[in-house]
Please model this.
Amino acid sequence: MSYTAEAFQNEYLALGAAEVNAIVTVTSSGSEGGRRTSGATEIIIVDASGSMQAEGRINAARQAAKAAVACIDDGVHFAIIAGVGTAQQLFPAPGQLAVASPQTRSEASWSIDRLQASGGTAMGAWLLLAAQLLAQRPGDISHAILLTDGDNGERQGYLESVLDSIAGRFTVDSRGVGTNWKVSELRKIADAMLGTVDIVAQPADLTASFEQMMTNAMGKTSADVQLKIWTPVNSSVRFVKQVEPQVADLTGKRVPDGPRAARYPLGAWGKESRDYHICVDVAPGSAGDEMLAARVSVVEGDTVHAQSLVRAVWTDDTALSTRINRQVAHYTGQAELADAIQAGIEARKSGDDRTATLKFGRAAQLAHASGNTATEELLATVVEIEDAATGTVRLRRKVAAADEMALDTRSTKTVRVGRGQ
Amino acid sequence: MTECASCADERAAGAAFCESCGRSLAAGPACPHCGAAGAVGEDGYCEQCGMLAVRPRDHLEVDGGEVAAAATDRGQRHHRNEDAMWLAVRGGDVDVVVCDGVSSSFDPDVASATAAGAAGEMLASTGDVGEAILTAKQAVAELATDGDPRRAVSNPACTIVAAVVRGPEVTYGWIGDSRAYWIPGEGPAEQLTEDDSWATHVIALGVDPEVAMRDPKAHAITGWLGADAGSVQPRAASFTVTEPGHLVLCSDGLWNYLTDPAAFAAAVRTGLHEHGTLINAARYLTDYANNAGGADNITVALIPVQPSAAEE
Model:
């Protein structure tokens, strides 16, 4: 794998300034010939609770699971879990992993056709079983797909405790079908397991969604890539956020590595590019001082793939220190956009229309100004945008649940800014 | 085990200092900012406090003994030295170039280093000052198209003043506001170059010099090396020395603090008389500017020139 890491920042700080911001773009060209540098294991978790009988969901879920199985490359280990009040392994035999081949894929399809919907929803138990199965293949690129249509039925706090115990061991992409599931629950899983969350409002769209997730997973060629950040004494990392393709706060995933460095997990990587916003608090220097505020490395185990320097240069030349870096400004706006949408939805739910209008207005303004048309269109399903430039919006009286959930789940999707300064 | 090379007293690995003689046991240099021993990493930053410890261009000197000397210094306010110099001594022959990067351009430090190097090499092979400056102009212009988009947007740019001394013959040329002076044995300094600057331009048009120099635009230069320099041509002249004196080339980091020709000459003579060697005199002049505030990068070159024996 060949990686590059490039920092975009205005390194010039006014005298007394102590906050250093940079956007670091990490790009991987993928491994040679797209071959994995390690093995891979896939777990498909399908909600088989009683509610899945509605709207032909269980049938759509069967088709989708079969389509996902068809996308698994030969040689990749896999298993299918039927999600009910407990976790039951649907394929292969309990405690086993199958090795993908034309024969095992068709056996899996046969099993999937026998999946019946009856029982409860226990996401913590489902994920725990997935973790146990994946533990048989340490070092693999480990990934799970989780499909649900309802609220988690486990006791309060159980899912969180499971996530705490398995976080970072594998990636989970979650999909909610219909509108009776909670965005906050699946987002919790996505945040802890470095995955994505999205709504599939129509059961008929499940197959396309599963195919896309599995194809994406098959494109990953490295298992466990990390960002290692070194900072000098008397300084600290205020936050590390993935800001593209979607916002994900990595600050809390810090694992210390030596006296002045820490690692942040980035999950599995293929041929792709992601942007990270790094903010470091430093002790201010005097005019002319140049400090290395952070040394940012892309690492896999002890191998350093790429490195980029985040610098701070103090100057009394305001023409330099007041320059605004386009990357930093853009992604600061994108993160605020996601926050504004989530706050707006929260306020609307609690009946605080005034705050909701304010937050959605700000969101419309940010989405418009940054050219994030996908988010602007989603916003327009929840509010009437009268003037995006000034952020003037009116709440819609009637909002389809699916539209609001789509806005919520996709609020963290960002767009890239044109490069060059 | 780590062994102190100086007193051969063995100490446990990891100790920062030799307990016998107190010398640092660490391989690398100590950080000039926080004092941590051997903490300066390969990329020049201190592994402890993060400060940039190694900046080779912060202060550079070329000591040509009794023939010539030059020094360049970052000054007090700028974060890097965007001045560059070239000084070559072959017997009694001297080639000298001083360049000052234009701060508002991208990578001005690269521009000045490129120009000084290109001009210096041309002087070494042909001794032609005008040709050397045009070669430097071409080299700096090419920096804008080397693939870095930021250089294309704000192309690297710098000034240049160059001179060759061959016996009593002095030839000099320039573009921008870096200067050449002749310091005779007595009396005020003679400014050989005429700045390509807004102030010089309007003074030539009749504006009162004091008023012109107080204008914020006074130091805006009207000629430079760079992709956007247009058709600017170097101005050049030569003269034959008839009495002993010193040729001085410098950037505005020095002459800004010595705008009066008499004061300039006095400062140079103080350096020469009180500090003995040429290099000490050059150092005295960079210190002079630093003590006065060091608002800009400072570069100065000193070349004593004697009249030919026949004229003495």
Notes: The helical segments of chain B are 108-126, 129-142, 149-153, 198-204, 209-214, 252-255, 261-274, 278-291. The radius of gyration of chain B is 22 Å. Residues 2 and 48 of chain B are 21 Å apart (CA to CA). Residues 58-311 of chain B form a domain with the Phosphatase 2c; domain 1 fold (CATH 3.60.40.10).
